Amino acid sequence: MEIIIENATLFLILAGFFGLFMAWGIGANDVANAMATSVGSKALTIKHAIIIAAIFEFSGAVLAGGEVTKTIRKGIIDAGGLAATPELLVYGMLAALLAAGCWLLIASSKGWPVSTTHSIIGAIVGFAIVGIGMHAVNWGKVGFIVASWVVSPLLAGIVAFAIFRSVQKLILDTEKPFENAKKYVPIYIFMAGFMISLVTLVKGLKHIGLETTTMENYTYAVVVGLIIMVIGKHFINRIQFDQSLNKDFHYASVEKVFGVLMIVTACAMAFAHGSNDVANAVGPVAAVVSIVHNEGAIGQKSLLPIWVLLIGGVGIVIGLMMYGHKVMATVGKKITELTPSRGFAAELAAATTVVMASGTGLPISTTHTLVGAVLGVGMARGMAALNLTVIRNIFMSWIITLPAGGILAILFFFSLQGIFG
Amino acid sequence: MAISNYMSGIFGNSPIKPMQVHMDKVHDCVALLVPFFEAVVAEDWKKAEKKQNKISDLENEADALKKDLRLNLPKGLFMQVSRQDLLELLTIQDRVANKAKDVAGIILGRKIILPKKIALDFTKFVQRCVDASEQAKVTINELDELVETGFRGSEVKLVQSMIKKLDKIEADTDKLERKIREKLFAIENDMPPLEAMFLYKIIESTGDVADQAQRVGSRLQLLLAR
Fold it and tell me: Is residue B4 part of a domain?
């Protein structure tokens, strides 16, 4: 107890700094994955992608990131036996942040397919096992989270398959794809707007102190969806059938219509990413802040201070500014095969899956979910060529990342314990 | 800090564009048969040689494209069409150019002179064979549209009608070929036997250009049937 009260400010500063470091890592690499599909399909310029990412990552984190933050903060570790030594939890959370941040930095520089989510979960579980004991880990919850890592790419794949098949049936495979695109694309825009706003309303507003009924939630979601749809329709109506563009590739004008849709799904994707992945950085900070504010008492109910969320948002934006645009540029160049009609299906499916997971408080990997969605489009014969070795690499990365995050966290944990005695 | 990224790794290099580039090159090569035969009919061997060289160069370039595409089509790629079918289509595309090179090579090598009685028909015949190659090119040009639609729907119907047109052109070349053979048969006793034999061979080889072009269409049809 005394340790915490004595070092309160130092702990808060360390937590803030490590959280910023981790968020910076997420912004530098992970966000680019979420946005690169839009950049690669030329629906967005890099500059616009960064602006969209900054706005929607942030609002996703603030409005819909609460549940995942809660899971990371207190869902994984059963803090019941720590009432006498709350400082262990503080060291652990600091160590986990530092470990995940470092691992992310190493992996990013080597190009390994590492998920921020897996790093932080591995780190928390690692320090808990060694620093506190096997019993300290809430294994039921962890098992559920790991299962969700398998389920989420699969689910995104199935949804993407269904969305893309519907696009084929309604638009691409018809006699008049351009006219049908103009007719049906606004409906997809509505779906994207409706889905995102519904999850935000159901899971987010309660968090910032607004209570709404189910009926109200659905009504508002429909209204928001309609507003976005009308704006989208306005832009779609301005697209003319361009004969010169269509000479070489007959679907050029059709893809332009999908380009409008893809801007909407890019926003949804950034929002979804913010709602799930920012919690990886914010969750441990929140845990430390909560313990320090309650002077050592664990598990007290406390509202998340706004500066904690700001750290997540600011860190991501700095990371984006410093490295994100470079990553987007290189990734964007590589994935030109992903046209807007495909990209939107993958993004909408991935965003839906991630936002639903966020609502349930499950920390999943946005990138893996997006990869699952792209494969789903591929299964619907949507992609010219997909490299399946990436799936093997992703599985390999799980096997490496979880222990790597854990071992690093253990090292940092004992170092911190040594420093503070 | 050098950041590299793995998400993009999932997107393999699409073989579709290279297939189209290859077919374009093949047709560029085949199309030169028209000026080549003009030179042969005019007995302007200097010009003919120049054209033959160009045909040979383009055929080599097409060959290089073919090899490059083969090397860049790893087995682990998940594609809309089977790898085997695509590689076979590529081989057949390449054969169209090979045949054109054969014809030009034999004629120039032996300085074969077309008898006046068949020269006009032969020019028409060559033009029609080049038409077949062009139609094959136009059809292969629809590959990216087929990718867009996932090899389904009305685009498939469009491509099928193009293949039908290709078949029709090839049938025309068969008719012209028969006609030239008949005319040659009527005059073959008035010319050196060896020359007559080589003329028959050239007629056959020229017809092969159209045959192979048609096979490009048939192979594509197999891709659609899956």
Answer: no
